[in-house]
Amino acid sequence: MRNCVILICCVLFNVVQAVEINSPGGKLQLAFRLSDGVPAYSLSSEGKRVMDISRLGFLLADHPDMNGGFSIEKIDSASFDETWKPVWGEVSEIRNNYNELCASLKDDKGRLMNIRFRLYDDGLGFRYEFPRQHSLAYFFIEEELTEFNLGADCSSFWIPGDYDSNEFVYQKSNLSNLSEVLVEARKSMDSKTIIDNRSVQTPVLFRNDNGMYINIHEAALKDYPSMCLTLQDSSYTFKSNLTPDPKGYKGRIQSGFNTPWRTIIVSDDAAGILESKLVLNLNEPCKLKNTGWIKPMKYVGVWWEMFVPWGSSWNYTDDTNIRLGEYDYSKARPNGRHGANTENVKRYIDFAAEHGFGGVLVEGWNEGWEDWFDKMKFHVFDYKTPYPDFDIEQLSDYAESKGVTLIMHHETSGSTMNYERLMPEAYGLMNRYGYKAVKSGYVGRLYPVGEYHYGQTFINHCLYAIEKAAEHKIMVNVHEAPKPTGMHRTYPNYLACESARGTEYEAFAYNKPEHTTILPFTRLIGGPMDYTPGIFQLDFNYYDKNSNKTLSSTLAKQLGLYVVIYSPLQMAADLPKNYERFMDAFQFIKDVPVDWQDTKVLEAEPGEYVTIARKDKKSNDWYVGNTTGENRHVSQLNLDFLDKGKKYKAVIYSDGADAHYRTNPMSYRITEKTVDYRSKIKVAAAPGGGYAISISEIK
């Protein structure tokens, strides 16, 4: 192995054993050590601190702890370099190049534990491995002791640590005043299971006193609780805080098991964090033999009309206290506001077909919406029985005749047992009527009682649903889900998930203008997000003259989000009638792809702005998107990523001169110019604004 140095030394009565390796290009340096039998690591970048000495180990609930008394049995090292092709994604090829160190440890009770490190030029991944052994066959984790010792006060972007929700407003603070800011940060959410005043969720972004950007997260999370981080008293060290089960255990383990990877992405600039593919690389290769049926697409649907003033409802009737299977919906009085009715859905199908969208999502089609939220009911939804005004067979035939697929919606209200029980029928119904994708949801507290959204049981449930969906050739988009950790490499039918504060919060709460400049550095590190952009009618006074609500965005920014917030399943979320009022701007949404050949981060600073260029997988066309925070931003874009010797037409969708997210959010302008690889474009984004550019080859 290149650049691997093994150092063993003794210091007085304390035995310190240390092993050091460099990343393939020599940029990062990892040191693993045992000091008095306690394992720890440190990480540096070209000699500058990334992580000071950080301990490793476990507290066990039913066995002696594994936090000391270790000796090194052996050290294995290896190098690896491959290039692999994702089924879909931000780039068509990904290089996976690392140097690996595996420390095989044995404690003073004869128990075995390996710690495997993979060091890349852009970061580190490490995990614990428990070989099959008689001395430790089954055990319960009380806590994982993994530390991340940042070594000094850092600025950070984070949301509060929570076992049940990641839909908080992102905060920026130094570690030194994190606890103070956390108290206020909690107020951005009503439904939550707060940990304490010092905990944050991953992915979390830091900037240290050396000017480096550091992202901490996890990869390949399965059969294990999700991790938050808790800041330790009087230090700048975070310790892992796993999600407990109803008995308080933080992992039920059978040896012959590997934990998820703990990930640290490191970059001298913010753009490098966004360009890293470390989390994806640490996941297993695709397990699906046939992926030809997985088709990224854009969609519209019966959804946003439920959020606007005087809009539609999910429920068919306003009756309550309903028992499914006993209540006769055919005799119910309709409330007259039900959105998922046959004629309304046909209008969406017509709109999708006319404008080239692949799918139509329909929420509120099935029985149970009258009596669902947070009631802790077992049989809360029926996934095969439509409401009386939703003709599932007619609509499926109609969609097929128009070349459009319907997207199923499975809300569970957290009743995972009910969903697993009905899953064969639910997926079978989708196959019967030609539904290619499902949006599942887990709003509210989980059933069984006492489980958390980020606990081991729910992690396993979500993977089970994805695997079963793959057996039925169904693509999955999960809401109220655990944060993604790159598992879409292994299961590419797992197209997207929510797992953060999305567009819906613009309707009933708020998102800060800088929210979408922070998401790429935090939530999106783990995988694509169903953010549901594309809202054109940004002033709710249009629907209700008594409303003074305006979304925290300009119209041009909504276009830019189709490039910045990556998802292979992208929604044009607004009402068709609103798009028909702005067809010139809507053209960008029609044109922009959802699967990419290449991606360039042109400029980025969390909380301020992000500008990304992406190349269509099927052509030489490029698309640029920008999202900007509270302050106006002017971009000076260099188009040197274009092919030499070719001319392109650039269509620029930008904020109007008088645009402002509060006072004039729907002011925009569209300009065109001919460009090539030598061109530079100057574009201004208004406060809370953004822009989008389509760059098509002139043939």
Keyphrases for this structure?
699 residues, alpha+beta, 10-stranded antiparallel β-sheet, 7-stranded parallel β-sheet, 34% strand, globular, disordered N terminus
Brief rundown of the structure:
The protein is an alpha+beta fold.
Write the layout of secondary structure elements.
Elements: E1 4-11, E2 14-22, E3 28-35, E4 38-45, E5 48-55, E6 58-60, E7 70-84, E8 94-107, E9 112-120, E10 123-130, E11 138-144, E12 147-149, E13 155-158, E14 171-174, H1 178-185, E15 199-201, E16 204-207, E17 213-219, E18 227-231, E19 237-242, E20 252-254, E21 257-258, E22 261-267, H2 270-275, H3 278-281, E23 297-302, H4 342-355, E24 359-362, H5 392-401, E25 405-411, H6 416-433, E26 437-441, H7 456-471, E27 475-478, E28 494-497, H8 505-508, H9 515-518, H10 555-564, E29 569-571, H11 576-579, H12 583-591, E30 596-605, E31 609-616, E32 622-628, E33 633-638, E34 648-655, E35 668-675, E36 680-685, E37 690-697
Parallel strand pairs: 23-24, 23-29, 24-25, 25-26, 26-27, 27-28
Antiparallel strand pairs: 1-2, 2-3, 3-4, 4-5, 6-11, 7-8, 8-9, 9-10, 10-21, 10-22, 11-20, 12-19, 13-14, 13-16, 15-18, 16-17, 17-22, 18-19, 30-31, 31-32, 32-37, 33-36, 34-35, 34-37
Helix pairs in contact: 4-5, 6-7
Structural class comes to alpha+beta
Quote the average pLDDT: 95
Distance between the termini: 49 Å
- Report the count of strand segments: 37
Radius of gyration, Cα only, in angstroms? 26 Å
Taken from the alpha-carbon principal axes, the silhouette is globular
Percent in strands: 25-35%
Uncertain runs are 1-14
Helix content: 10-25%
Q: Number of helical segments? A: 12
Question: Largest sheet, if any?
Answer: 10 strands, antiparallel
